[in-house]
Amino acid sequence: MTNEDGTAVEVSAVTVSGDLLPGTKGQSVEPAGPDSAHEARRHIGLRFTIIARLLRNNFDRQVVNLNVTRSQWAMIAVVSRVPGATQRTIAEALEMSEASAGRLIDRLCADGLLERRDRRDDRRARAVYLTPAAEPLLEKLASIARASEQRMFKGFSQDELDALGSYLDRIYDNVSRG
Question: For residues 4 and 40, which has the higher predicted lDDT (pLDDT)?
C-alpha cells in the first residue's frame, strides 16, 4: 500500500475495515504477512490511536457552534470534576505545562467561565472554580459527551462493557508503570 506521496507503507497484520484509516472508507486493508501476537498487539495500539482521534474530531465538530476549543472544554471538564483545583493540578490532569494551563485559565476567567479564588490553606496557590455562567455550557458539553458515549458503546452488553473496562484498566496499569 502507498500513501499520498507514493511512499510504500506497511499495513498492520489485522484487517481494518470501515473508515479507520484515511482513504480506506468502505474498504478492507488485508494483513501484510502472517498473523502473530506481535502484529495483533500493534494493530490494537493503532486502533486505540485512531479511535481516540475519531472521538476528538467528532466531539470537536459537535461543539464548534459553542465557540469553545478542545483545550477549553477539556479545562472546563477538569475544573467541573475537581472544583478548587490548583493550576498545577489542572495542568497535570491535562498533561500540559503550568504556563499553558495558566494562560488557558486566564482566558476562561476573562470569558467569565472560570474564576480564581484565594486558598485558605496556602496563600501562594489559588483555587480554580467554574462560574455560574459556565453551567449552561457544561450541560451542553455533558449532553454531547453522553450521546458520544452511547454511540461508541452501541450494541455492547453490560457484561461486555465490564470486561472491556477490566481490560482497559489492565492496559492502563501496564502502560502507567512506564
Answer: 40
What letter would DSSP give residue 35?
Answer: -
Question: What's the pLDDT score for residue 119?
Answer: 86
Q: Which domain holds residue 55?
A: 1-66
Least confident of 50-54, 108-112, 120-124, 169-173: 120-124
State how far the Cα of 78 lies from the Cα of 96, in Å rounded to an integer: 13
From residue 131, alpha-carbon distances to 96, 116, 165 in Å are: 23, 10, 33
> What is the 3-class SS of 94-136, one letter each residue?
HCCCHHHHHHHHHHHHHCCCEEEEECCCCCCCEEEEECCCHHH
The chain-wide mean pLDDT, for the chain, equals 83
Cα torsion angle, 36, 19, 45, 11, sign: positive
62 and 84 housed in the same domain: no
